[in-house]
Amino acid sequence: MSGSKQISVIRLGADDPLQVDSSGSLTAVQTRRVEAWLAALLQTEHLSLLIGNGLSAAAGSMAGKHPPLMSRHISEDEEAPFPRIREYAKESAQNVGRDVNLEDEIRAAMMLADGLAVLGEKSNENSVRDAIEAAMSSLLNEVLDFERNIWEHHQKSDSEALKVARALTQFLGPFVARPAQRDRLNLFTTNYDRLLEYAADVLGLHLIDRFEGRLHPKFSASRINLDLHYSPPGIRGEPRLVDGVARFAKLHGSIDWSFARGEIWRDSIPFGGPRTASKTAANAVIYPNPAKDVETLSYPYAELFRDFAAAVCRPNTTLVTFGYGFGDGHINRVIADMLRVPSTHLVVVSRDPLSALDSFKARTLFPVSQTTELLGPDVGGLEEFSSLLPAITSDRILEAQFEYLNKRSKLEDEIEPKNADNEGS
Q: Could you tell me the superkingdom of the organism this chain comes from (predicted)?
């Protein structure tokens, strides 16, 4: 394997790419230029952030345990039909220009199990469904092990205890610090883990999602545009938006969502588990596991993807993808539609090279002026990208600062002529 360092790609819209020096670091001028560009994009009327597995991988690297790999097989059994399941999943992934993963094989196995059920081949159907159950159960347990390691790292007494928490809050903070006159941040993720929920708790961020209720939160099929406001002292009829609020959606479900009684509920599973014994993997709401209701086979994923499309496919929108590998065709189609709106902008951030991004560019409209690329270890890592984000300062503080400096300047202009007259006399 070659030991050569990966070259970072830094392109800000239609401008020529920035050249990184041999040390792999940006100059002070380049850093300021990237920061100013990102600051402008983060202040657009609508802002969305799409998080992929790259964020979990970065946090896991800091805590010493990586999230579960999706590049594995549903079963290593060489007897039929599992070799054919792997072949079909690989073919379907290659058709969209990416590598095969566990989701592809689970989806292929579910299709086969349904077909076997139609043919009445109960024995073969049960064999396939048992493999699906085992693969999903193993995945859920590994995700919980990953969460548990993050939480144990958080509770350490040494200086490394809050390293992950600080990195996550430094990353999310500039996105959440939206001016009151701007739309809320729309936060999306394809991850099953609850790393973003953990970061929100540390940051004091209120997440508004489709779930309603405290004891047994239930997924609402009808989107309700709730928000949080407060009334300033002495002011009536002019409520203001509460700081630190974001709209949140997990596009591929979550390990603590489950099907029960024809509804989707969020279970009370601690960060890192354990999972209750009564909750089977077959009832877990993680993509592509469908509901057992024939009329809602795409439920709740269709509702969540509609939320994603409604958030990004509108004028004056910026979508930032971090750690997303462009391997999901249903998400890519929405992004392609978004780029057809002239006032939208896409920012792609990734530490690792994205072969699927090249395929996405070749298959869809990818206007250079509407896109920004920050790819490579020098700019696409969690800490590296966070260092390029603009500093968080309240707009009211900045306005007060400018007002004070303006008054101070005028006062000095009035005093200087008087001093000159006194000296002359």
A: Bacteria
